[in-house]
Design a protein that fits this description.
Layout lengths: L2 H14 L2 H9 L14 H5 L10 H9 L3 H5 L12 H5 L6 H15 L7 H16 L4 H9 L4 H10 L1 H9 L17 H22 L1
Helix pairs in contact: 8-9
């Protein structure tokens, strides 16, 4: 075989090498399993939110293998996963589909490519930022963040709609208005901060080890 033919063959092969699949395998939790999907569609049929998915899991996996990076990372599909694990329980190859979908969502968020107005993403970010400050969830601040997502007027309107529930929670001592200013925290907030710092270090090391 001539050198010219070898060069042409190499160029053709490079065209089909999928850098996005390699990226997913390196940066997404359990991403190395994506290539094992046999496209049977059991995951889509098992998902209670199947009809609402923009792209079902097996379509996402096929898009990854096809190198459709932007379409995958800007999709809201990963954020639709409710962690019911039906897909994992029924997958013929026992792929960790739920873990992969959450991993893709986290990776898209890290890159700033996740859809900004996707409600599940908004809730996830609010919940996480709320918890890591004190080690415990401040339900009042979380609720306020959700209510006022679309502006002052929308927040006041939603608060008025929910006023009877809020009053019931206060009477049952399940809601304290003063937590808006000073919420309750865990006893060892420094310990929580140290755990989170160590987790980030481990994740950073893992990503660099596989890149």
């Amino acid at each position: 075989m001539s050198e010219a033919h070898l060069a042409a063959t190499d160029t053709t092969g490079a065209r089909y090498r999928n850098n996005f699949l390699t990226e997913v395998e390196a940066h997404v939790e359990d991403g190395q399993w994506v290539k094992m999907c046999m496209q049977c569609g059991v995951c889509a049929g098992s998902c209670p939110l199947g009809p609402q998915w923009q792209h079902t899991p097996q379509k996402i996996f096929q898009m990854i293998r096809a190198g459709k990076r932007e379409e995958v990372l800007t999709s809201d599909s990963m954020w639709m996963c409710t962690s019911c694990y039906n897909c994992m329980a029924r997958c013929p190859r026992k792929l960790p589909i739920t873990h992969i979908m959450h991993g893709l969502a986290a990776y898209a968020h890290t890159l700033g490519l996740a859809p900004k107005k996707q409600p599940t993403r908004h809730f996830s970010v609010l919940f996480w930022n709320n918890c890591i400050k004190t080690g415990r969830l401040n339900e009042l601040k979380l609720t306020m963040g959700l209510y006022f997502r679309d502006g002052l007027f929308a927040g006041i309107k939603q608060g008025w709609v929910m006023r009877n529930i809020a009053m019931g929670l206060m009477l049952a001592k399940r809601l304290n208005p003063f937590e808006l200013f000073l919420g309750h925290g865990c006893k060892d907030q420094k310990g929580i901060a140290a755990i989170l710092k160590k987790a980030r270090e481990i994740e950073h090391q893992r990503r660099h080890a596989t890149s």
